[in-house]
């Protein structure tokens, strides 16, 4: 059974970080990020944490269903799509988000600000959709 406490904690983290991203979304552009290192660092961290919350949720749901763990976060979202829990399109978008998370964590010296801004816009659409699906599992 899905552990409602695990789900609730991750959803709370997801919602908090998305709210922070929404609060700065209209202020963020390439020039602003280039001139405000603290803002860029905050945006990167909030985006990373939001995506990681979704990845954690995906792995938790997969484990709960007794399925073999996927090889990657992208694979986790694909597996949820294969089970009919999310659409294939959302799985593709979330897989891209997982790729963004990997860049933020492992290849942080090469973060392209334009891609970062597109990542914020995508996250504010795709991650809440995933969170809503997961929230439905504990209601």
Description:
The structure is a single chain. By secondary structure, the chain is mainly alpha-helical. The protein has a single domain (4-138), classed as Four Helix Bundle (Hemerythrin (Met), subunit A) (Up-down Bundle), CATH 1.20.120.580. It has helices at 4-25, 30-35, 37-64, 73-82, 88-106, 113-138. α3 (37-64) packs across α5 and α5 (88-106) packs across α6.
Most strands sheet = none
How many β-strands, per DSSP? 0
Oligomer: single chain
Average pLDDT over all residues: 93
CATH topology: Four Helix Bundle (Hemerythrin (Met), subunit A)
> Separation of termini?
13 Å
CATH class: Mainly Alpha
Please count the helical segments. 6
Low-confidence stretches: none
CATH superfamily: bsu32300-like
What's the structural domain tally? Answer: 1
Helical coverage, percent range: over 70%
* Shape field: globular
